[in-house]
Design brief:
five-stranded parallel sheet, alpha/beta, Alpha-Beta Plaits, Beta-Lactamase, about 45% helix, about 425 residues, about 25% strand, 17 strands, 14 helices
Amino acid sequence: MEAGKVKKTQGYPVLIVGAGRGGSALLEMFQEDNLVEVIAIVDSNPAAPGIKLAKSHGIQTFTDSKEALQACKDYPDCIVYNLSHDDSIALEVMKVFGEHKRVASGPEVNLFWQMVTNLKQTKVELEKSQSQLQAIIHNAIDGIITINEGGEILGFNPAAEQIFGYVEGEVLGKNLKMLMPEPVRSNHDAYLHHYVKTGEAKIIGVCGREVIATRKNLEEFPLELSVSEMVLGGARYFVGIVRDITERKRAEQKIAHLAHYDYLTDLPNRALFLDGLQHSVSLAKRNDCKVAVLFLDLDGFKKVNDTLGHEAGDLLLQGVSKRLKETIRGSDTVARVGGDEFIFVLNDIASEANAAFTAQKIIAALTQPFEIKGQHCQIGGSIGISIYPDASSDPEILIKQADDAMYLAKQSGKGTHKFYHDVTPNR
């Protein structure tokens, strides 16, 4: 270094005296700070950890403090940090730099050393906590999406990528509404602005809310959403925990279907039929029209079941159900209520004659042979009919009356139909 020539540094010039643990830690800290530039470090032990660290960073090293001070005298405002136990360093600094130069030594440096140590420990702990948090977010089963109060996506973990079909780079900085279908998409910005302005929340703070979302391929799907708010550094952020519940909704729908439909024929069961009949009666009352209830019992089914086996019997019932649905109108309903028993509701019939006509169509459809396991099976059907409001206005009673009329049809030779008013009082 040329004597008497003023040297410039990128940061505040510092000379460290003492390259033990304290000096090494101080050097390490200053290397991460752009406001400080360590121009040299000195220690009588050339193998001191701080000396090795300085060399790895291309920083001057000395084993003699006087030489180090002389080498650094051309740097204006150089601060000397004395981490050695040599109190004479302060005097040497005064000789070299004059009174306007500063040296930190003794208790001051010990306090500084403690502060540095505590800061480093805090930093390590924070980095560890941050790493753990990032690992949790990265490996979470649920999607985690972070947005700012403007709705821009700031975080999008791998689970969210899998749910929506986007990679993180495709969504960062974009508005969250890209993951929403209409009309929610168009209303999202206004809702978020309203919440930020008034604090009135509809979704924020609600756990497990079910919404509809949109994947990258534009497929809409059910999503469970929980949103919370946080404030960091005066800025407001929102964190959404999302879960694709497509499979759960399918399972729920399947369970609901099994609860209301016959497992073999997929026709409505008695409970669902009764709900539908109640609705039909209420509608007929409002519109002043008639509703017919038909009760069908198959003729000859037991013989097929006993001869060909239960599997054949099941196939026959499935074939019968298909024909029955094809025979009635789309506005009418057929349900399976027992082994080989079916009930119908015929809406808005003008007269008994229309109900009788439909009953004969059903019986005629059943007389056509069924092919089961390579064999032709011949069956028939007997039908009982009750009419709302002529026979009753109670759905349960209407079904019972149609059942009674069906037994009369059976007794009359099968393959026919009877109305409830045909049933004798003594029966």
